[in-house]
Write a structure and sequence with these properties.
Strand order of the largest sheet: 3-2-1-4-5-7-6
Number of domains: 1
Strand content: 15-25%
Number of helices: 8
CATH class: Alpha Beta
Shape: globular
CATH superfamily: Vaccinia Virus protein VP39
Largest sheet: 7 strands, mixed
Structural class: alpha/beta
Radius of gyration: 17 Å
Distance between the termini: 43 Å
Helix content: 40-55%
Order of helices and strands: HHHEHEHEHEHEHEE
């Protein structure tokens, strides 16, 4: 199997199961035109997040890492009319692009972007009494994953779903001696998932247009 074949299969799946969507396509185009890195989830992965939030019956979603708002749009569309999504973004330029994309998708009344480092904005959410959230999606800097997961637990309830992207890192996650802070952040996250009695978790390895990686999915089973 090669990257070319993974990408071809992704195109096949997307063409069959992910209808053309002007707002989502525009969000990717605007992000690229603004110089944002091409690290958004793939269309098939975006729809997976949407379906998971739907299955969860989510009314409130927290996203850690907005980028250009592509995954934000997918998640926000899973909410009912009175639902709420809060997305945390550290980069002002990313937040500006995301706000434009979200407004163009007609979701600016549903989505709130909080600008600032998540390690600082997460305590603010708690102090404001926001949460618990039904779904929390973590897709930010990988060294911060352990801290983000700890805060996700604090902002969860029994039955909440925590999803973390990029937890396989092309297979590099198995290298315990890696000097890459991102790899070590992912390894520590996976260790926390294994040791945490309040969650039941697994990791799904993925291949596709985004290469070889994976998602962690954790259900909060007790308060």
């Amino acid at each position: 199997m090669t990257q070319e074949q993974w990408s071809a299969v992704d195109r096949y799946i997307t063409d069959l199961l992910v209808p053309v969507d002007a707002a989502l396509d525009a969000a990717l185009q605007q992000s690229a035109a603004s110089g944002l890195p091409a690290i958004s989830v793939s269309p098939a992965q975006g729809k997976m997040l949407h379906l998971l939030a739907k299955l969860q019956g989510a009314r409130s979603i927290l996203e850690i890492g907005t980028l250009g708002g592509y995954s934000t749009i997918w998640l926000a569309r899973a909410l009912p009319a009175d639902g709420q999504l809060i997305s945390l973004e550290a980069d002002p330029r990313h937040a500006e692009v995301a706000r434009r994309n979200i407004a163009a998708a007609g979701l600016d009344g549903v989505v709130t972007i909080r600008l600032g480092r998540a390690i600082e904005t997460l305590p603010q959410l708690a102090s404001e009494g926001l949460g618990p959230f039904d779904v929390i999606f973590i897709d930010a800097d990988k060294p911060g994953n352990p801290d983000y997961f700890a805060w996700a637990l604090k902002l969860s309830r029994r039955g909440s779903l925590i999803i973390v992207d990029n937890v396989v890192r092309g297979g590099a996650v198995i290298d315990s001696a890696s000097r890459d802070a991102g790899i070590q952040g992912v390894r520590r996250l996976n260790e926390l998932l294994a040791a945490e009695p309040r969650v039941s978790a697994t990791v799904i390895q993925t291949v596709g247009s985004k290469g070889y990686d994976g998602f962690a999915i954790a259900l909060v089973t007790s308060d």
